[in-house]
């Protein structure tokens, strides 16, 4: 296939905008855990698990946006491959090491659901598979998703044969109350909660999201090698089909996922198995809708892209601001706000970070976390460079 020539260092505005959009969904998905820390040690119900807010968040947000973020990680790796050339192996290994260390610090100090350690580890696997053909990468990703879905469905069948109780126990309630008390008991209390909880949650994240993240890395790798987002005219004719399938199948399946998460162990496992596939369809529809909107209203892309360019700084920044609101680091409001108020806090945090990202990039080329990662990755001691015109890297 003949590919159009694209400068190796060129940033793709649309990728930055989609990444900035995904950050908003990740914030909404994560903030419920800050607002309701008992979820991490309780009976497994969703955070802020009752009422219309929970219905909307579980149906439209949960499991949808980390799919987009994982896909973009794989896609961005291909951009780095073009930029780094023969130095891609040592640089990617250093970058993954830096991400892993950052993730451990993030997990223990701020956010027990940190994803960076998982991304760093899977990034090493992606590096080893960097020469795989796009079609083979897609097939491998499909196999991973298919196998994981079958495993969830088989587990659902086993649970049906030997059903267990799904009611919350007194110990669950006591553990949840203890978690909330620790989180709001000043900085030391919160750190004690992090130290006790993060290792267990990290293991669950690796098991629950690891295979799917690797599949999306491979999809992103294939798309990046094919320059899919850089040449949207090649798939423009598929837009109506993507939207019809994404929303027509993805939305009903997302409603089933929400219902099944509260319906019992077997149905919850079945919902997870189905959601493994259908969350990708709905996430694809989100991305295509956003790209269509950006074409018609460029200001939308202009508002989102700065946050996407400094995504790592925003990811950490979300945790910092959420901690200042909900934990003993700050106002200690965990367990005190209604779900709609929690979503209001999420909107405020997101808008603040969008504005800060745009302001920062008027004075700097990279975000503070991105600068530190780049410095270690390239082993460069240079100072942060002045801003460049939009569209360059």
UniProtKB/TrEMBL annotation:
<feature type="transmembrane region" description="Helical">
    <location>
        <begin position="97"/>
        <end position="128"/>
    </location>
</feature>
<feature type="transmembrane region" description="Helical">
    <location>
        <begin position="53"/>
        <end position="77"/>
    </location>
</feature>
<feature type="transmembrane region" description="Helical">
    <location>
        <begin position="242"/>
        <end position="260"/>
    </location>
</feature>
<feature type="transmembrane region" description="Helical">
    <location>
        <begin position="315"/>
        <end position="334"/>
    </location>
</feature>
<keyword id="KW-1133">Transmembrane helix</keyword>
<dbReference type="Pfam" id="PF04235">
    <property type="entry name" value="DUF418"/>
</dbReference>
<keyword id="KW-0472">Membrane</keyword>
<feature type="transmembrane region" description="Helical">
    <location>
        <begin position="140"/>
        <end position="161"/>
    </location>
</feature>
<protein>
    <recommendedName>
        <fullName>DUF418 domain-containing protein</fullName>
    </recommendedName>
</protein>
<feature type="transmembrane region" description="Helical">
    <location>
        <begin position="198"/>
        <end position="221"/>
    </location>
</feature>
<feature type="transmembrane region" description="Helical">
    <location>
        <begin position="272"/>
        <end position="294"/>
    </location>
</feature>
<feature type="domain" description="DUF418">
    <location>
        <begin position="223"/>
        <end position="378"/>
    </location>
</feature>
<dbReference type="InterPro" id="IPR052529">
    <property type="entry name" value="Bact_Transport_Assoc"/>
</dbReference>
<feature type="transmembrane region" description="Helical">
    <location>
        <begin position="340"/>
        <end position="361"/>
    </location>
</feature>
<feature type="transmembrane region" description="Helical">
    <location>
        <begin position="20"/>
        <end position="41"/>
    </location>
</feature>
<keyword id="KW-0812">Transmembrane</keyword>
<dbReference type="InterPro" id="IPR007349">
    <property type="entry name" value="DUF418"/>
</dbReference>
């Amino acid at each position: 296939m003949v590919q159009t020539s694209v400068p190796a260092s060129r940033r793709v505005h649309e990728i930055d905008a989609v990444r900035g959009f995904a950050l908003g969904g990740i914030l909404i998905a994560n903030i419920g855990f800050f607002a309701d820390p008992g979820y991490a040690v309780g009976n497994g119900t969703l955070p802020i698990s009752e009422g219309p807010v929970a219905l909307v968040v579980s149906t439209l947000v949960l499991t949808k946006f980390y799919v987009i973020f994982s896909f973009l990680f794989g896609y961005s790796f291909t951009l780095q491959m073009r930029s780094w050339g023969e130095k891609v192996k040592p640089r990617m290994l250093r970058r993954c090491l830096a991400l892993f260390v950052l993730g451990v610090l993030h997990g223990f100090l701020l956010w027990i659901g940190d994803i960076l350690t998982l991304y760093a580890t899977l990034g090493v696997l992606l590096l080893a598979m960097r020469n795989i053909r796009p079609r083979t990468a897609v097939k491998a990703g499909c196999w991973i998703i298919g196998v994981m879905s079958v495993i969830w469905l088989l587990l659902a069948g086993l649970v049906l044969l030997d059903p267990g109780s799904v009611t919350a126990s007194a110990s669950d309630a006591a553990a949840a109350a203890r978690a909330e008390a620790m989180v709001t008991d000043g900085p030391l209390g919160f750190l004690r909660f992090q130290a006790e909880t993060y290792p267990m949650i990290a293991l669950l994240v690796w098991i629950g999201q690891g295979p799917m993240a690797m599949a999306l890395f491979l999809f992103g790798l294939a798309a990046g090698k094919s320059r899919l987002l850089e040449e949207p005219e090649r798939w423009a004719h598929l837009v109506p089909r993507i939207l019809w399938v994404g929303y027509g199948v993805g939305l009903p399946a997302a409603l089933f996922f929400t219902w099944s998460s509260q319906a019992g162990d077997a149905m919850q496992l079945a919902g997870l198995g189905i959601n493994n596939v259908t969350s990708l369809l709905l996430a694809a529809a989100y991305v295509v809708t956003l790209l269509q909107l950006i074409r018609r209203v460029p200001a939308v892309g202009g508002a989102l892209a700065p946050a996407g360019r400094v995504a790592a700084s925003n990811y950490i920044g979300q945790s910092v601001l959420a901690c200042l609101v909900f934990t003993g680091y700050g106002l200690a409001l965990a367990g005190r706000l209604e779900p709609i108020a929690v979503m209001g806090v999420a909107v405020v945090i997101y808008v603040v970070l969008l504005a800060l990202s745009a302001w920062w990039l008027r004075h700097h080329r990279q975000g503070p976390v991105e600068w530190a990662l780049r410095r270690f990755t390239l082993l460069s001691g240079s100072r942060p460079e002045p801003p460049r015109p939009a569209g360059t890297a």
